[in-house]
Every structure is written in structure tokens, then in C-alpha cells.
Specification:
Length: about 180
């Protein structure tokens, strides 16, 4: 009987292990990202995402990203925003450019909770790439090189996922190293 219990426990533990691992707290921008908090409540603590947080606030998207979701967010770092031509971020943050800013930010969001494993499976199904429709209505293509994922935007720009699977209570964040641009 004891052996049967141990075997049953091992089967249950194995079945639950991937989910437990997926919910692990990760460090992003020097701060823990708690799977029990929403996307915004975690992002505000990352020193690597201050520009993104300011942009989300300027676009009026805070309440949306605090909502139930689930969302998959490809979150550009400050360094990614710094790659844009000089003055671009300041221009986008102006109130008169809110619509453009909103389009750029929602181009980084996909409905649903897509882990790196989910994305890799879709890439495999798609024979090397998969197309995602963003919340803004644009298209992104996900591809894989070795064990790394990268995205290609509608203008042909390429962005690598540098930190994958930062799970939140309302979705998942994948940190990216370049701002993705819609048409």
C-alpha cells in the first residue's frame, strides 16, 4: 500500500511540476516579477522598463493591462526604446500623438497567454514560423533560432526574446530587445 501511495504521489507531482515551474517568480530589471500580480503592478518595479511604463500611462492603457486578460506582452526594455531614432520616444509621449503611441504599444500585445513553449510549438507547426495577430490588429511573425525565439514586425524589424515566460496573474511577459513597429 505504501509503495502504491508513493507511486501515485510521484505521478501527481510529475503532472503538476510543469505548472508549478511555470509560476516561478523571475527577476526582471532587478525586481521580482510575482505571478500573483498583474502585468502593470509587476512592470512598474522593473528598472529596465521605465520607458514602457511611462508610455503605457501616456497611452491610457494601465487599466486595460490590469484587466483580466489574459495577455501575452512582448515588453521592450529601455535599451530597446533607446535604439529608436533620437526624439522618437519624446514625440510619441506627447498628448497629440496618443493614437500612434497606443498603436505601437498594442502592437506588442497578443490576446491569450502564450508561453515560450506554446510559441515554439506554433513555430514547429508552421514549419519555421508562426503568425500572430496583435491587439492593434497588426501581424507579428515568431521564429526560432536554436532555443531562442525572435519576432519580426511588419516593417521587417527583428527583436529577440531575452527573458521568456515571466508569468503574471493576467498573462505572460516576454522581454524583447527591440521595439516592434506596425505598418
Amino acid at each position: 500500500m505504501k509503495k502504491l501511495f508513493i507511486m501515485a504521489f510521484a505521478v501527481v507531482a510529475t503532472a503538476l511540476a510543469p505548472n508549478a515551474f511555470a509560476q516561478k517568480t523571475k527577476m526582471v530589471g532587478g525586481a521580482p516579477m510575482y505571478p500573483t500580480k498583474d502585468i502593470v503592478d509587476n512592470a512598474v518595479n522593473s528598472k529596465d522598463h521605465t520607458t514602457l511604463v511611462a508610455a503605457v500611462k501616456a497611452a491610457g492603457l494601465v487599466e486595460t493591462l490590469k484587466g483580466d486578460g489574459p495577455f501575452t506582452v512582448f515588453a521592450p526594455t529601455n535599451e530597446a526604446f533607446n535604439k529608436l531614432p533620437e526624439g522618437t520616444v519624446a514625440t510619441l509621449l506627447k498628448p497629440e500623438n496618443k493614437a500612434t503611441l497606443t498603436k505601437v504599444l498594442t502592437y506588442h500585445v497578443v490576446a491569450g497567454r502564450l508561453s515560450a513553449a506554446d510559441l515554439m510549438a506554433k513555430v514547429k507547426e508552421g514549419k519555421g514560423k508562426t503568425e500572430l495577430t496583435t491587439v492593434s490588429g497588426g501581424k507579428l511573425w515568431v521564429m526560432q533560432q536554436g532555443k531562442k525565439l525572435y519576432l519580426v514586425d511588419e516593417k521587417g524589424g527583428k527583436s529577440w526574446v531575452t527573458i521568456a515566460d515571466v508569468f503574471q496573474k493576467n498573462g505572460v511577459i516576454h522581454v524583447v530587445n527591440t521595439v516592434l513597429m506596425p505598418k
